[in-house]
Amino acid sequence: MTWTPSVALKATTITAALLAGSLLAGAVPAALPAAAAPAATAALPDAAAPRTDVTAALRKLEASFKGRIGAYAIDTATGKTIGYRSGERFPLLSTFKAVAAGAVLARTTDRELTRKVVHWTAAEVKSNSPETGKHVKDGMTLAELCRAAIIYSDNTAGNMLLKRIGGPRGLTRYFRTLKDPVSRLDRWETDLNVWSPKERRDTTTPASVARDLRALTTGGALGAKDRSRLIGWLRDNTTGDARIRAGLPKTWIVGDKTGTGGTYGTANDIAVVWPAGNAAPIIMAIYTNRRAADGATADSVVARTATLLARGLGRLS
Q1: What is the pTM of this model?
Q2: Residue 199 contacts residue 213 (beta carbons within 8 Å)
Q3: DSSP-based three-state secondary structure for 237
Q4: Catalytic hit among 22, 86, 94, 153
Q5: What CATH class has 54-313?
Q6: End-to-end Cα separation, the chain, in angstroms
Q7: pLDDT tier for residue 89 given thresholds of 50, 70 and 90
Q8: pLDDT digits (tens, 9 = 90+) for 99-150
Q9: Domain spans of the chain?
Q10: Which of 44, 102, 279, 315 has its CA 20 to 30 A from that of 8?
């Protein structure tokens, strides 16, 4: 794990009014100001002097977990980064849905987003589809599908977003537009959740996906209205309370997207985090897996890693 100073980026100002309410599908909140953000997707080298205290703590946590932890965090106030196994591949799982929603937002007009209704058949409904399972007859708008995919991790909604952007290959192409040469999606829900340590399909690295999330939420990858929508959906997420959110003070504002697999105890979370009293957010990406194929997920490991990242960046004592 290493620290890297980088060119300071202009902090994105998020107003209290925006951060206070829940954004309903299709609602357009007050626009976020544009950020200086082509740099948000630029490679941030991970090669300075290691923070041995945090590294040692993560190694100890890995040993007790009997697995592997990949983590990367970016302090957008200072440009500092901190990482641990940040260049190793992990399965994307449902964290892909945050980027897929970003791709849909980037390629869809406001009118299409809120008025275009997408339909699917009962045969296309996948497991864990709490929203789309109720709307086989009437369908849902693209905005509603983005919201369902992020805040409920609805699998059918995720597939409908992929259809909109050209399938898994379309999302891989979108990763490349974010200057991410690493992340890739190869399969649809729910096949993409089947992963083994030798698998390269449907994978990312913590550093790569953290930069992608930075570009989408505080950078220039999306227009102001679409950044606001995506941030609102991330903040409304219902699946992440035991992960990154659990490792940070309750006064901090967290918008996240989780991912959970069926083998090797895979459990992920990516987040944009606003510490209390500071408008400049931290971007976090945490990916975990067990060594044993039948290992169980451990939310507490993700939460503990989030705590250590915040301390490593000097945001927690």
Answers
A1: 0.85
A2: no
A3: coil
A4: 94
A5: alpha beta
A6: 19
A7: very high
A8: 999 999 999 999 999 999 999 999 999 999 999 999 999 999 999 999 999 9
A9: 54-313
A10: 102
